[in-house]
Design brief:
The protein is mainly alpha-helical and about 100 residues long. It is built from 2 helices and 2 strands; from the N terminus they run αββα.
Amino acid sequence: MTEKPAELLRQAEEKDLLADRFEGYVKNLETLLDRIRVGSVGDGPVWTGPAAQRFERDTSRRSADVNRLAEQCRGASRNLRRSASALRERARLSGKPL
């Protein structure tokens, strides 16, 4: 059964769109922890005390998990793009006469 080039190209486009989504997840994950840190504004800390310290510790511990998840999203995006490229090549080859 010969695959239709248009169908292969459609599948490739879907994979590229999903890869774009994963890349968006990476951007969100990269900024997530920075946005929720206790930090300082202006003249001093915004939030202090035992609860703030616990929050900082927990956030720090979870940053490794978030970084790992971001790397997995990057890997998924790379794999999807490779697969899309292979589909485009198959579409190109299947469109040529034998």
